[in-house]
Amino acid sequence: MYDFQLARPRSLPEAVEAMQAEEAQPLSGGQTLIPTLKARLGAPGTLVDLTGIAELKGISRSGDVLRIGGATRHADVAGSAEVQGAIPALAALAGKIGDPAVRNRGTIGGSLANNDPAACYPSAALGLGATLHTSAGRAIAADDFFLGLFETALEERELLTAAAFPVPLAADYQKFEQPASRFALVGVFVARFADGARVAVTGASEGGVFRWAEAEQALSADFSLSALDGMSHPAEGMIGDLHGSPRYRAHLVGVLTRRAVAACG
Description:
- The chain is of the alpha+beta class.
- It contains 11 helices and 14 strands.
- The chain has helices at 12-18, 33-38, 74-79, 81-86, 88-94, 100-103, 108-114, 121-128, 142-145, 213-221, 246-264, and strands at residues 5-7, 24-27, 46-49, 59-62, 65-69, 131-134, 139-141, 146-148, 151-152, 160-166, 170-177, 184-193, 196-202, 210-211.
């Protein structure tokens, strides 16, 4: 690693102030950032440790909205009775991220802000139509937040403070793991609401997480497996690598979508 300064704010205002330092970088769970620094692929002047800020942690429900603080760990999301009762699919998703070491350090805000193209949480945020809250007081719809590979609508020095998830009638996440990394080779999050369905896909596209509009339209009209009869996702724009061709990933999108719909009941 290169030399850097370490700031440990105890409140959100202190964190915002610390982020004004030259080449400041926020540190949440560090599951992506620390390996990046060890490989000397990043050289921040100051790391701003968010783990000591109580107001960035915690889970609460108000009506039909589940709010999760940005510094809340994956393990806490997975084990939360509040999440399990409101959106069981979200708790199940969190419980399958990485391994116990990752789940006990990694945070939901870090995952969403990093926007890895194979990460699980972005598909949940997009599939549930979440709203992402920031240190600048902005509330950004998930549809406007994810802009591409490792790119989001966050401004420089802006922090992701919380994610607010509408509670669906039913939801399910299906993940085809890459066995070495446990990231999603393809992951599909399906959510059913009174006004329609949402289908979000991660791990498959060269452009990052996306919504499958054709499947959403069919499921909004008739939320059943038969609504997807004869439907397949095109291979164009899908990732192709040693783990799977674009055609293979496109096929998995269809398979996992059907499994998720079946699991929704």
